[in-house]
Amino acid sequence: MKKFPLIVIFVIALQFGLDRAVSALDHFKLLDLQVGDQRVKGRVLTHNDEMCWLLHQDGRLQQIAMGNVTDFKELGERFKANSQLEIRKQLETEFGSDFEVRTTSHYVVVARRGIAESYAVLFERIYFEFMRLFRARGLRVVEAEFPLVAIVLPDEVSFVKYCRNEKTRVQPGMVGFYLSTSNRVAMYERPNAMNLDRTVIHEATHQVAFNTGIHSRLARHPRWVVEGLATVFEADGIRSRHGTSSPADRINRERYLWFLEYAKSRRPAKALKNFVCEDSLFEKSVLDAYGEAWSLSFFLMETQPKEYSNYLKKLVDRDPLSVYGADERLKDFTDSFGQDLDKIESTFLWFIQKIAKR
Fold it and tell me: What region, left, alpha or beta, does residue 59 occupy, with left being phi > 0 and alpha being psi -120 to 50 degrees?
């Protein structure tokens, strides 16, 4: 990328607008912006005439309206992620003396004193199992750029308060979440949570997937792709280091049984097209949607791993600021897995229904 002197960039900004100036910057350099009454530093990941996404050194993402930027400068240093020590100090200040902060190779974990170490080991284990599994299946994964932050609150009350501070809507039954803008996993203590319960695995999988190149934190992924991969990884059998040739040993049994019942009693004929093209089933019937997301993802991962990997990469490479409509979603899917959607659907349903008989 051609680099321009800072004075030239300011001239571009004055004459043609900030978006043109940002295009002229070295995007690997640290940028200092005046946004309203705040001064922020980070790396511009993408932008258009109206907004830009700024990546902070602690891994947070911030959407900034171009019209709110009154000044900017390119700093002399290159953008570099904060170290674990820097993140640890930041969290100790944020959460105070009632919590302790523990670190592993990839994680910085905040939890009640006496249990943070156990959770840190647990999250690190999930990271290791994720990377091992998807590398073995030929998916393109990279090591996380930032230390991964996990927050374990002591009870539901403090969890709800944290959600409100993060402007995250608390849904009925919600016990944890991964937020792509903060890049944090947050949950609260429950019985058996440290025995690899489903919520811990599911939310940690989201975080690892969005930080290792499987998903993009900016791109608009179909919801079935994101939730499907996480539900696939919930199953103990698929995370086991002891390989098995039987798909039945790798299923998420709860999601599998739910989908069988859904497919038998109320799933519309030729429902695959709508499921691929839109996220409406997640709003209408969330458990049906999760069941189908697991089933479709498991089917593709088991039967077409190379095509599945290429499909995920296609989603990551999309322009994150463009609209991802139904037609584009369908085209990406059929370009990856075949044009005959009816054949794909019949093969998919046959595969899922026959798993338990193998």
Answer: left
Domain assignment present for residue 21? The answer is: yes
* Tens-digit pLDDT profile for residues 48-91: 888 889 999 999 999 999 889 888 888 888 999 999 999 999 99
Whether 39 contacts 33, CB under 8 Å: yes
If asked whether residues 183 and 228 sit together in one domain, one would say no
pTM of the entire structure? 0.88
Closest to 139 in 3D by CA, of 292, 296, 316: 316
Average pLDDT for residues 28-34, to the nearest whole number? 87
Per-residue DSSP letter, 174: -
Which phi and psi angles does 83 have, rounded to 5°?
Answer: -75, 170
Enclosing H/E stretch for 149: strand 148-153
Nearest to 234 by CA among 249, 251, 259, 217: 251
pLDDT of residue 2: 42
- The tokens for 24 are 């002229």
Query: Which of residues 211, 237, 261 is at a domain's end?
Result: 211
**Are 49 and 108 members of one domain?**
no
Spell out the residues 6+ positions from residue 260 whose beta carbon is closer than 8 angstroms to its own.
352, 353
- CA-based angle 221:224:225, to the nearest 5? 55
